[in-house]
């Protein structure tokens, strides 16, 4: 179901989306060589800003299936869920979100932005649109992905972002 048709709860005073339970966000770090795939958001919040492809898990999906669906919807890249490797898990307590990130590599620079994206591009670390990032509070996670890509050494990372601060640590070697 397209994002604009999903049931969402909004605050009647500020019009911000509100939920009373944790939401699961799935993302995909897709590499082509030493570049990662980014998408320019076509929908609010943060329309026009750049982000790593991802979105909310839907009913009756596994984590990897949700990540593969979001990747397909936003970028046109079709990868089976089985091609995605677990990469990062974490929680953002002050917005009630749990996120799970996967990673994969592709051989082609083919992208076909869906209706949730204005454009999609592969960026090297040096060429990233850092001044136009939708959620700069997670820039260090994205920088970690570039470091892992450069070394070819991938671990599963765990992180937590709370009102008191941010922590990230590796929980498993490749």
Report on this model:
By secondary structure, the protein is of the alpha+beta class. It is globular and about 45 Å long. 27% of the residues are buried. The chain contains two helices and nine strands; from the N terminus they run ββββαβββαββ. Strands 1, 2, 3, 4, 5, 6, 7, 8 and 9 form a nine-stranded mixed beta sheet that branches. It has one domain (21-170): Alpha-Beta Complex (Nucleoside Triphosphate Pyrophosphohydrolase), CATH 3.90.79.10. Keywords: Hydrolase, Magnesium. Belongs to the Nudix hydrolase family. GO terms for molecular function: hydrolase activity. Its cofactor is Mg(2+).
For the structure shown, list the relevant keywords:
NUDIX_hydrolase_dom; globular; NUDIX_hydrolase-like_dom_sf; 174 residues; hydrolase; Nucleoside Triphosphate Pyrophosphohydrolase; alpha+beta; NUDIX domain-containing protein; magnesium
Sum this structure up briefly.
The protein has 174 residues and is of the alpha+beta class. It has a single domain, classed as Nucleoside Triphosphate Pyrophosphohydrolase (Alpha-Beta Complex), CATH 3.90.79.10. The chain is 15% helix and 35% strand.
């Amino acid at each position: 179901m397209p994002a604009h048709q999903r049931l969402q709860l909004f605050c009647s005073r500020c019009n911000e989306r509100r939920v009373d339970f944790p939401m699961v966000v799935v993302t995909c770090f897709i590499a082509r060589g030493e570049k990662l795939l980014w998408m320019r958001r076509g929908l609010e919040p943060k329309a026009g800003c750049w982000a790593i492809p991802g979105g909310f898990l839907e009913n009756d999906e596994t984590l990897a299936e949700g990540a593969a669906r979001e990747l397909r919807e936003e970028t046109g890249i079709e990868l089976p869920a089985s091609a995605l490797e677990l990469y990062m898990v974490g929680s953002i307590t002050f917005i009630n979100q749990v996120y799970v990130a996967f990673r994969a590599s592709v051989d082609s620079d083919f992208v076909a932005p869906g209706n949730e994206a204005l454009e999609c591009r592969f960026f090297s670390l040096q060429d990233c649109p850092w001044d136009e990032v939708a959620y700069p509070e997670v820039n260090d996670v994205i920088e970690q992905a570039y470091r892992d890509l450069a070394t070819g050494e991938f671990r599963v990372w765990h992180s937590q972002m709370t009102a008191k601060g941010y922590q990230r640590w590796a929980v498993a070697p490749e």
